[in-house]
């Protein structure tokens, strides 16, 4: 591993060979730890860059009594180590997450701001639990048995009595996994104004002799043979060995809100099946979203394995969907008095989750033992902190049909131009991924990137160039793109979302008008497959995803959590406090994404 070290103005290059590393017997809690022997290294200034799963110790270095940070890269007390290239052992997956807390809220003049930042993160990501309201609430052994139902195979599977398959309450999932060698790297985030605290900076302080690793708002400090590490962790999802609800006393309700999305029936089905595995017999569906609580003509839909067995074979929602609905107090009154519901599963997007969080808070205020669990449903894939949401893969796959049709129409016509509008109010995930997957798109317009239609550097000028050089062109536009070009209205829908102007129709009209004015023939075709995509059945990938999401939603409820939602983070299933995922819509990280370079 080649590493260049700087101290003041004197550069030195150190080459560390693998034979200079030997296993450490002193640190047993870290996988594959190593010690470094400077007496065997080539050069006087030993430097090492390793993965975060490795801990490096230097012989002869006095151990530290507290963790220290570099407050300035110009500080001569520190040597900052930057790799010439990222070693292959570094994980290269990046979480699509961003903190919902503004850095302006941090007092950087406070010398203890990093400790406070760490504590604030832990407080914000602590999962609300039934024992917060009922401290004396007793747990009981789980009625869910994840043990293998097949015979043991010695040497291949763990023995039945030594393996139970439950998730420990202290299990965590790392929120961010990418290694940044420099604050200038695409996608790296600086916490302080001086950009001195960024992901994975390796610093050695010769004054107090500490080997520090600063990573993702975190630090690692060696003290004697123990290593104290703090990173951004979230709670791992899955079945717990102890539960806080008696299945025979549970009445569970499921609700689907907002618009349609592929996979809704898959999630409903798996929630019902998992509840029955726990032993729950009273399961109902609330029809047509939150509206089902206020409309007295709408009655509960009894649910069982027999009812939901094959609903995943069709699109839509067995329970129906709607936007808006009842007030929080009215819903909680219905849960508590009229229906006797103590497990409430809410499937929806940002607005629906905001409602679920308000219901959770009201239940806590009234000291009700009700578990409110969210399952993110947004076809736009715009939920914070998560890898993706269900229905997104299906939407990208189905969008290929519309794009291919637009391509054939454009390619078959004289000076043909095909325009396809796809979903994406605040983010261009579907438009970008569908464009990349198809390989047939010439221009992709998304909300994250401002653009102009007219002018020498506008979209229409480039379309003219494509017609002159290729003879045809295909444009993909997200529904939330270019809203600054349209007349703004103050209208909102039932969910409180601003009613967007139709950028697809506007682009079609302006394209026809432009080519007519310049005297060039253009055959413009416009396709909007939005409702065809929303109503289709989930594909195989989303089907599996929905199944595990539904299972983990039930596991979270029986574990006693409330006011949480479930999703994937760096491919692992995790629980998140609802406020952290609805702070604002997630958007494409243009500078960090290799997909758009």
Would you kindly provide a written description of the structure presented here, covering whatever features stand out?
By secondary structure, the chain is α/β, with parallel strands linked by helices. Among the domains are: 242-389 and 538-582, Rossmann fold; 392-489 and 498-535, 3-Layer(aba) Sandwich (Rossmann fold), CATH 3.40.50. It is built from 14 helices and 25 strands. The chain has helices at 113-124, 130-133, 264-278, 291-294, 305-308, 328-339, 350-365, 392-412, 429-438, 459-469, 503-517, 530-534, 540-558, 578-581, and strands spanning 2-7, 10-15, 21-23, 34-36, 56-58, 78-83, 140-141, 172-174, 201-205, 210-214, 219-223, 226-230, 233-236, 242-243, 251-256, 282-286, 301-302, 343-348, 371-376, 416-422, 443-445, 473-478, 523-527, 564-569, 572-577. A nine-stranded mixed β-sheet has the order 8-13-25-24-19-18-15-16-17, sandwiched between helices. Strands 2-1-6-9-10-11-12 form a seven-stranded antiparallel β-sheet, with no helix packed on it. It has a four-stranded parallel β-sheet with strand order 21-22-20-23, sandwiched between helices. Helix 7 (350-365) links the parallel strand 18 and strand 19. Helix 3 (264-278) packs parallel to helix 13, helix 6 packs across helix 7 (350-365) and helix 8 packs across helix 9 (429-438). It is globular.
